[in-house]
Amino acid sequence: MTRSDYSRRNFLGLSAAVGAAGLTAACGGGTSGPPGTEQQGGGGEFTGKYEGPNVALAFWNGFTGGDGPYMKKLVDQFNTEHPNIKVTMTTIRWQDYYQKVPAAVQSGQGPDVGAAHQDNLATLAARRSIQPLDDIAKELKLEESDFIPAVWKGGIYQDKRYGIPLDVHSLAQYWNSDQLSKAGLDAPPANRQEFEQAVSKLKSGGQANPFWMPSLWPAHLIFFSLIWQNGGAPYSEDGQSATFNSQEGVEALTWMVDQIKGGASPKNVAIDTQYNAFKTGRNAGTFDGIWQINDLKATAPKLKWEMAAVPQIFDEKAVWSNGHNFVLMTQRKPDDNKTQAAKVFINYISEKSAEWGNSGMIPARNSARADASFSKLEQAKVATDVESFRFLPAVPGIGDVTFQGIEQAISKATLLQASPKEALDASAGVANKLLEENRKKFGG
Amino acid sequence: MASVDTRSAGPDTLGPAERAPAPGRRGPSRHGGRWVPYVLLAPYLLLFFAFVLAPIVYGIWVSLHIWDFTLPNKPWTGLGNYRDLFDSESVVGPDFIRAMKATAIFTILSVPLLVVIPLGVAMLMNAKFPGRNLFRAVYFAPYVLGVAVIGVLWRYILDGNIGLLNHYLGILGLPDDIAWTTSTPAAWVALVGVTVWWTLGFNAVIYLAGLQDISPELYEAAIIDGAGPWARFRNVTLPGLRPVLQFVVITTIIASANMFGQSYIITQGQPGNETRTAIMYIAETGLKNFDMGRAAAMSFVLTVCLLLLSGLVMLLFRERKPKPLKGVSA
């Protein structure tokens, strides 16, 4: 798979927790929370500096795409500037990451610091594999006003902050520039009418199937974007019930299926096919995440392409988004020095928000997005309207619900095995049962 | 030992205590001999208990709980997990039954092919012709590759829209829009085909060893009796291969029922989750959703099915006349 930053399984990714043994571990330095029941920060008062003995930190993440080298560079910089801290970065695919981290933390073999997606934070926190880090947020002077509200709230679980936001990333549309201009189009479509026009012009220009509709990843991200555009939502606001089989959801999925029935897309698009076809010029356009920017540059250097925000198909502007966060892993045997050093590390990278933009991501801080250096980057085009960024509710276990519910329904509908309504209704039943089980399991 | 005193002991039935000391090998060596087998077996038994029996018992214990190993609470649910598997109203019930069906379909389709084709290949390879060793290596070669390698390779070949296979079918004037990885039954044809290509070398090598064990005199005698090629195959080759055949059938059934990598990589369980096999679903439930209780319960249900099937195969091979293979899957 040529997955860049992301992979379908990261929605699946759940995580872990400590057993009873880990619960009574180190305390102190916390800003809130019942004393003695959870690790709260740890490592004493956070001063922003580390002056103790030499320590080695393990930092795990899933930056396997074009983003990995940029993180490695930042880590190397940090190591040079901090001779008494040595950070070792380990990168594994997100899908394996969310599977491995909980087990590793559980058995005391986990890393010290990690990265995690916003929609996985609640799950990781509920399983107690990550620690609250309100004190770092305070030290970093993170202000709600400097963030997209959903990103700010997404890092909070049960009134405590578990993630330091690093970036946001969203779905986008990619088009083959040569094919667009050959068909007499000067820009990617911005709305439904333009989209339909573009498709029909490209078709009459000889491109039989200009826009391929995937049946798996990132099909559900397209669906999320469309249902939000249509005024609906995949889940209720509190994340307690599935609402993706609403009228708005059925219309959203019907639009996707109509692209196939109407011939914009061929039938039976298998995993990654639409993206591979785009790279080789077999189709003219595709929807994918902004994390593909560096992948396209690296693996299809000759391809001329342009990227833009997802077109507005329905009444509202909306696009599926997610974010990367720094997290502090729970330790079986907490070491104050390591915890302190880890905080220094998180603090350091977080302040390099703008440099991280080169990885293809959008900085989470409003101030970094306003910076002139960011506006030159490719992804700045989709970041002009962060109001339209929508995020999944932060409920423990929601990734699994999406995988077993929504993704199955979309696969069945886009492979023309079931009508959109049938598929969504059946999946909503499964999703609601899973949500119910998760409530019992996580006590939420 | 108490019975020794009350028995009327004849000269040949002396108890160990009464036995006359040592005409050589009788006395002490036989006495010590009682423990020798166990001592010799101990290293294996130790491993067997630690890594086979203990995990099985622990697995049964796990399957009786709602067991998420990342959460402190693992509430007892008795047979609840097993009930859920067969309850069409539960979250896992319909998916589990569908996964078991997928495994059954794959097994029924692949086992006959994997038993018959390698036998033909082995007989060809057993004949004397120049370049024989090269052909033996060629047929065995795919088996050397890991499932990830063959999976990715075939995913690109089989892709319905940009794959090589459909491209060549189109050149030949055949239908070139078959969705090999995203629709059934085409996906089953693809998965079975890939698996046969991948693993037939293994079965062929076992057959080949069996064929080389059949005494050439038997064939000579058969020829003298006027047996043609088919009669020789029926009456010399097949009976001579019976133990090998039984081994191949059972191991192939088990291997097919454990199919995971091919659908995980090539079809990703598509369409919907029609080609998601039991093992794939168990792995998802246990390792991705951390629902170890249900995953363990599913594993035991699958194990019981496989035990029954293996028993059935052994019964069939015990009869004098081997039944045709389709009896196996019925």
Automatic annotation (TrEMBL), chain A:
Record InterPro entries = Bact_solute-bd_prot1, SBP, TAT_signal, TAT_signal_bac_arc
Mark the transmembrane ranges.
Answer: none
Please indicate which superkingdom the organism of origin belongs to: Bacteria
Q: Which residues form the signal peptide?
A: none
Concerning Gene3D superfamilies, the annotation shows: Periplasmic binding protein-like II
Identify the Pfam families for this entry: SBP_bac_1, TAT_signal
- Protein name, UniProt field: ABC transporter, substrate-binding protein (Cluster 1, maltose/g3p/polyamine/iron)
Organism of provenance: uncultured Mycobacteriales bacterium
- What is the phylogenetic placement of the source species in the record? Bacteria, Bacillati, Actinomycetota, Actinomycetes, Mycobacteriales
TrEMBL record, chain B:
Per the record, its GO cellular-component terms are: plasma membrane
Residue numbers spanned by region Disordered: 1-30
Question: Transmembrane residues, as ranges?
Answer: 35-61, 104-125, 137-157, 186-209, 244-266, 295-317
Gene Ontology terms describing biological process: transmembrane transport
Keywords from the UniProt entry: Cell membrane, Membrane, Transmembrane, Transmembrane helix, Transport
Domain (ABC transmembrane type-1): residue spans on this chain: 100-313
What InterPro entries does the annotation carry? ABC_transporter_permease, MetI-like, MetI-like_sf
Q: Which Gene3D superfamilies match?
A: MetI-like (1.10.3720.10)
Membrane topology, from the record? Multi-pass membrane protein
Q: Where in the cell is it found?
A: Cell membrane
Top-rank taxon of the source lineage equals Bacteria
**Compositionally skewed regions (Low complexity) per UniProt:** 15-26
Q: Name one Pfam family in it.
A: BPD_transp_1
Record's family?
Answer: Belongs to the binding-protein-dependent transport system permease family.
Q: What is this protein called?
A: ABC transporter, permease protein 1 (Cluster 1, maltose/g3p/polyamine/iron)
